[in-house]
Amino acid sequence: MNVLLLRPCPGDERFGLGPFFRVEPLGLEYVGAALRAAGHDPVAADLRFAPKSAASWVRKTRPRLVGISCAHALEFDRVLDTAREIRRASPDVFILVGGHAAAVYPFPFECDAVDAIGIDDGEEIVPMLADALDRKEPLAAVPGLRLRTPGGWIATPPLPERTPLDRIPLPARELVSRHRNGYHCLLFKPVWLVETARGCPHRCSFCSVWQLYGRSCRERSIGAVTEDFATAGDAIFVADDLFWNNPPRSLELAAALKKRGIFKRWLLVQTRTDVIVRNPDLLEAWRPLAEHFDIFLGLEAATDDGLAQLDKGAGVGDSVEAVRIARDHRYGVNGNFLVDPDWSESDFHDLWDFVARHGLQRAGYTILTPLPGTEYFESVRDRIIGQPWHKFDMHHVLWEPKVGAKRFFELYAETWRRSILNTAGDKRWTDWMKQVRPAQIPYLLRILWRTQAMMKPQAYLREHGRTGN
User: Are residues 97 and 191 in the same domain?
Assistant: First the structure.
């Protein structure tokens, strides 16, 4: 069966670090590999780059099944527009929406433009759905779906077990190889995305990962991960929700990569501060594996009370100590803080003081946003009725801030001006240019120019009053 897999364009990324992170659609590459193993013929199109429309890809590939990826809530409307475009172009094609955001909150897609929504691991669900369509078998027997039927939307049975990750072939990266030079993170391009484990055992109130996977954490075998690292390029972003979660396994993986002689120009991993504090030996073991090695930390708050309100399960002391350990081992430290619309002015000053005191100017700042599928979303549901999905980008506010919109955005923009992204601050345009190869200067200039809007309160205020896309 011909299967078309689409990564839609998320729309106008007006704010945030989106321009710094444009990564390959790893989920579609895994689904594509699983479809091939089941005897089907997948084609993938990344509509963030592809000049063709979704309808033109349908006409070109003549699929029986189209899978549309939805990674973030802010993409809900764009994904629905893509499904409607495909429905007009090919009324009989079966349209499946999947991806993390759709799985944790499928309800916006329950409409006539969509036939089913994947609510579990697509690597298992999509091949089974393709097989059932091909054999004209009842689709209600395919697990892990919200399925449109003549009598309304139903939930099919769940998968009998969490998908063992080694059951899935390595990603079919060649499906989007024509876009490889467009995939980038921070100052590095092209970049490869690698997953060594999936899930998280913690329960932060603003995160939906643990909700979707039931606080489980599944791991790929050392051999599979080593092969993936070996065949990927020299700049890798490890997509694990919580890297180094299993310290003995992490040490074993580092040893296997060293034994294989795998060394990268750049690595980026995401982890928690308390993981680093409890396991500094992990950082020592992994540091020799890359010339440049960055860690992204969810710092979230500058006070213990702030972290407790987010159910973070770690304290500010962990943040300070983790940063020290990482710097002692010559890691680049990136992080993110959450800015609450219900803050007073003193909360902003506490954050500014903390950042200055610990030299955290490489941190970013996102607005605490009730993302669908999280406990926080459920707790404030009544406050966000009618808000358009494009505002769930963590740079809009969804209700009137405590200090008023005008003052809030003045303080929020001032927070960003204290970061290294402010080209009128301590790190100038020329300083940035020295960090990249000459051929990458135009790319970097475009990204830096776009991020300067985050320093301007007027830009946020204009957006605050908008209702449409």
Answer: no
> CA nearest 336: which of 367, 311, 312?
367
Residue 282 and residue 368 in one domain: yes
Domain membership of residue 301 (yes or no) is: yes
Residue-wise pLDDT for 78-103, tens only, equals 999 999 999 999 999 999 999 999 99
* Torsion from C-alpha of 358, 364, 365, 368, nearest 10 degrees: -110
Residue 377 lies in a domain: yes
Convert the pLDDT of each residue in 250-300 to its tens digit. 999 999 999 999 999 999 999 999 999 999 999 999 999 999 999 999 999
Walking along the chain (469 residues) 10 residues at a time, the average pLDDT comes out as: 95 71 95 98 92 92 98 95 97 98 97 97 97 98 98 97 93 95 89 97 96 94 98 97 97 98 98 98 98 97 97 97 98 96 98 97 95 95 93 94 96 95 87 84 84 90 73
Q: How far is it, in rounded angstroms, from Cα 467 to Cα 469?
A: 7
d(C-alpha 265, C-alpha 104), whole Å = 35
Domain range for 234 is 173-404
Three-state helix/strand/coil letters over 178-219: HHHHHCEECCECCCEEECCEEECCCCCCCCCHHHHHCCCEEE
Whether cis (ω within 30° of 0) applies to the bond prior to 63 is no
Q: What's the token pair of residue 56? A: 């033109």
**Rounded to 5, what percent of the chain is helix, strand, coil?**
45, 20, 35
DSSP letter (8 states) at residue 169: P
Distances (CA, A) of 374 to 78, 105, 301: 21, 9, 18
Q: From CA 364, how far away is CA 392, in angstroms rounded? A: 17
Q: How many domains does the chain have?
A: 2
Using only C-alpha atoms, the chain has a radius of gyration, in whole angstroms, of: 22
* Amino acid identity at 270: Q
Alpha-carbon distance of 58 to 8, in angstroms, equals 14
How many angstroms separate the CA atoms of 399 and 341, rounded?
Answer: 8
